[in-house]
Each structure stands twice: as structure tokens, then as C-alpha cells.
Fold:
Amino acid sequence: MVFLRSEEHLGRWLDRNGWDPGASMSAARLHELARLWWWTRVEPDWRPRTPAESQAILDELGLTGDFWRLT
Amino acid sequence: MGIRNRVYASFVRTGNAPAPAEVAAALGIAEDDVAGSYRRLHASHALVLQPGTTEIRMLNPFSAVATPHRVEAGGRCWFANCAWDALGIPAALHTDGVVSSACPDCGEPLELEVRDGKLVDGADLLVHFVVPARRWWDDIAFT
Structure:
């Protein structure tokens, strides 16, 4: 996952690498996702999330549909 | 504290990923046992080892090796594995942070700043996921 300047830069980057488009979001939305996803990661009592718990975080941000299915 | 949480605590404290021998010495247990734990943690995606070794490559969201995503947070400079992890480091450390990256199309430096839990700079940048979620762990370094 990368930061890009704009849709125009994304299009050129995908074309140059021969990749199909995946999914895009703003850095602001990624920041929300990062806070939910990583907030407890270095806490001493951290435990792994279940796939359902991780999926719930994606759902909470409206990241639904086949692209965002973890399993 | 288990091996996994001890490794994370050591990394956050020192900025270096401990080798199995260091953890073994700290805990008074056999290095082979710690190496086995590292392999199990790798298999369960709790950390990522360099291929064929017990050398840590990723303690997500942190990278133990240099990457194009640099993060200043908590008085230290870190490397992140990707855009998501870059914003994850200030989140995981519960602190402010500045992310320095670059547009992979044009190479232009990009900077984002997290302050008081808000993304105050770089919020309008675009983020792209090439790999669908169910394939993230097929090749986590590429993802």
C-alpha cells in the first residue's frame, strides 16, 4: 500500500507496472483505519484478533465488498 | 509476558529487533526454543521473518529493515512496511508522528503529520491497495 499524489499519478503508476486497479482511499480514511487496526499492537496484554474481529474493523469503516473480504 | 510481546517491547524500547539468542539470554531459556517460537509466530502472522532465517523483518506496523516509509514518532525514527503501517506507528505508540514517504509514480517526497490523534497534514493524499484483502498474506512484503 502506497501514498500517491493524485488519481493521475495512480493511473500512471498502475499502467507502468501493468497492474489492475485495486482499491483507493484518502490518507484521512487510512488514518482512521490505522488507529483502529494498530492501537493495541504494542500493549503488553495484546492478543491476536480473530478474522471476524478484523473484518468488523473494515466493516466499521465501510470497507465492504469482495475486495475487503479477509477470508 | 510471552515471547511475542517481549520481542515487541524490546523493539519499541531499543529500535532493534532482538535475535533469538538475545531473548533466550534474557529469559534463561534455550535459543532453539526461542527460534522455534519465532517460526511459529511467523506462521501465525504475528511477526515476519526474513525467508529461511530467524531474523525478524517485520513487527507490523514496524519494519526492522529500511523502507521508503519513514516515521518519526516517540522520539525515534522508524521504518514502516507500507502506507497503512506508516500511519499505524503513531497509533500503536499513542503519540504524534511525521511520516515521510514518496509518490511511487513521480518520486515527489510526501509528508503526513499526525498530531493529537488527527491527521493534520497529508490528509488529502491518495492511498492505493493493489492486493485484495484475502491475498494480503500471500506475499506480505509485496502487499
Q: What stands out?
A: The longest helix of chain B spans residues 31-43. Chain B is about 30% helix and 25% strand. Chain B touches chain A through 49 residues (CB under 8 Å). Residues 3-56 of chain B form one domain.
